């Protein structure tokens, strides 16, 4: 019988902890897909997914935040029902919501970079409030810009048609999510892993 | 909900990498063409793919119902115009054809989901993407599969507890932040325990994987995937 001999290349302790958090946050993103909270005077209830994208950037930082979201996208692509309406499949990653989905890792990375400014993580509760707000607003603009832009191209819609279908109904909810994300990091109950 | 279903169809016997190539090829060419003739050919190809995996069509359509709503509304929104003639048929039909190809792409990926077990997909990812990124993606995806039901139960427990304390009558921001703060801190507690357990079991960059091999039927299907991808340039 043929045998193989390789030495074991162990993974660093800090990396294991960050990696486990990234994987669990990716699963949480999937678990949050069917959870929605209705808001008054709006046709679109808020879902917690974008909130967890914000938190991926804020708590996991510019490297592991995007990694976490790529894990979520990969798990959905090979069949775990984690996309909106509990759907799955590689087709969703080029379908009408693909622009939003691909913007998530970029937004998490951008938010992580703006808040932590380095791969060494800082405690987001100690970062000044305007920096956090600007980072989250820029992240939101990126998500909706890519989401509606791709939708307009794919479904051959005009710019305003895509915005009224893919962005306007959700904007009030987005402002509430930014407020919720700030409340969570400023509560200081979730600490990033600092080496 | 569409999931893997053990069976002995042609699609089930193919290597997962071949099936991924077919999906990428199909999506590439579908994104490049919207003419009625191209859509007719694409529909036939999609039909054959669905038949080869024996996908129940209604189940697949209901799995993508959220996307279907947008795909149905888009042509209406595209057609509506302020002022005469109020509804522009050319705009609406262009958008309708564009939406239809997205539906075909979604159905083709349903065939993959039905015919491919997770561990095969994971092995395909880990073998196709070299080095540490492939390892992180492969193991990470397996962990996401393992922990999704656990975290869904966590979120359910938190929501029940909030409802029992009339938490669902609070403001939206408070509800969203309580739910996600508790969900996240539970998830991170689990992550820290998981990290410890992984280290205790010598979590390494080079574990042993199940073997994957191309069989004779893989080669013609792989060639078909290439033809599909190249037809994007037609």
Automatic annotation (TrEMBL), chain A:
InterPro entries according to UniProt: BioY
GO MF, any single term: biotin transmembrane transporter activity
Membrane-spanning parts: 22-40, 46-64, 99-115, 127-147, 167-185
Keywords recorded for this protein, A-Z: Cell membrane, Membrane, Transmembrane, Transmembrane helix, Transport
One Pfam family matching this protein: BioY
Subcellular location: Cell membrane
Topology of the protein relative to the lipid bilayer: Multi-pass membrane protein
The organism's place on the tree of life at top rank: Archaea
Cellular component aspect of the GO annotation: plasma membrane
Similarity comment: Belongs to the BioY family.
PANTHER family: BIOTIN TRANSPORTER BIOY
Protein's name in the database: BioY protein
Organism of this sequence: Natronorubrum sulfidifaciens JCM 14089
UniProtKB/TrEMBL annotation, chain B:
One cellular-component annotation, GO: plasma membrane
Chaperone is among the record's keywords: no
InterPro entries in UniProt: ABC/ECF_trnsptr_transmembrane, ECF_transporter_component
Topology in the lipid bilayer: Multi-pass membrane protein
Transmembrane annotation, as ranges: 38-57, 64-86, 98-115
Pfam families: CbiQ
Location(s), subcellular: Membrane
Keywords per UniProt: Cell membrane, Membrane, Transmembrane, Transmembrane helix
PANTHER family: SLL0384 PROTEIN (PTHR34857:SF2)
The protein's name: Cobalt transporter
């Amino acid at each position: 019988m043929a045998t193989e001999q390789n030495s074991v290349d162990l993974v660093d302790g800090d990396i294991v902890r960050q990696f486990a958090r990234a994987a669990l946050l990716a699963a949480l993103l999937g678990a949050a897909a069917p959870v929605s909270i209705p808001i008054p005077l709006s046709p679109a209830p808020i879902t917690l997914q974008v909130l967890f994208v914000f938190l991926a950037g804020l708590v996991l930082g510019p490297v592991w935040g995007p990694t976490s979201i790529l894990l979520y996208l990969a798990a959905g692509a090979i069949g775990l029902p984690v996309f909106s309406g509990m759907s799955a499949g590689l087709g969703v990653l080029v379908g009408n919501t693909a622009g939003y989905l691909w913007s998530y890792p970029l937004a998490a990375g951008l938010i992580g970079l703006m808040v932590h400014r380095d791969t060494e993580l800082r405690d987001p509760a100690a970062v000044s409030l305007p920096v956090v707000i600007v980072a989250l607003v820029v992240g939101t603009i990126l998500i909706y810009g890519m989401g509606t832009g791709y939708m307009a191209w794919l479904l051959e819609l005009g710019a305003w048609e895509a915005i009224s279908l893919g962005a306007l109904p959700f904007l009030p909810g987005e402002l509430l999510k930014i407020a919720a994300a700030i409340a969570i990091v400023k509560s200081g109950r979730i600490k990033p892993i600092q080496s | 909900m569409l999931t893997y279903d053990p069976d002995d169809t042609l699609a089930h016997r193919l290597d997962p990498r071949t099936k991924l190539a077919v999906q990428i090829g199909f999506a590439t060419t579908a994104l490049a063409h919207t003419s009625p003739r191209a859509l007719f050919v694409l529909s036939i190809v999609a039909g054959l793919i669905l038949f080869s995996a024996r996908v129940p069509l209604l189940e697949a359509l209901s799995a993508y119902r959220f996307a279907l709503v947008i795909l149905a509304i888009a042509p209406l929104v595209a057609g509506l115009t302020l002022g005469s003639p109020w509804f522009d048929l050319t705009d609406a039909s262009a958008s309708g054809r564009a939406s239809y190809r997205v539906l075909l792409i979604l159905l083709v990926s349903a065939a993959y989901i039905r015919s491919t077990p997770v561990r095969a997909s994971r092995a395909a990812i880990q073998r196709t993407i070299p080095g540490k990124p492939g390892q992180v993606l492969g193991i990470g995806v397996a962990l996401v599969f393992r922990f999704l039901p656990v975290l869904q139960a966590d979120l359910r427990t938190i929501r029940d507890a909030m409802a029992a304390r009339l938490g669902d009558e609070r403001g939206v921001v408070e509800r969203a932040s309580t739910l996600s703060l508790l969900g996240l801190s539970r998830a991170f507690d689990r992550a820290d325990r998981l990290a410890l357990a992984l280290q205790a079991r010598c979590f390494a960059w080079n574990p042993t994987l199940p073997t994957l091999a191309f069989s004779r039927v893989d080669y013609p299907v792989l060639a078909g995937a290439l033809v599909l991808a190249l037809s994007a340039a037609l």
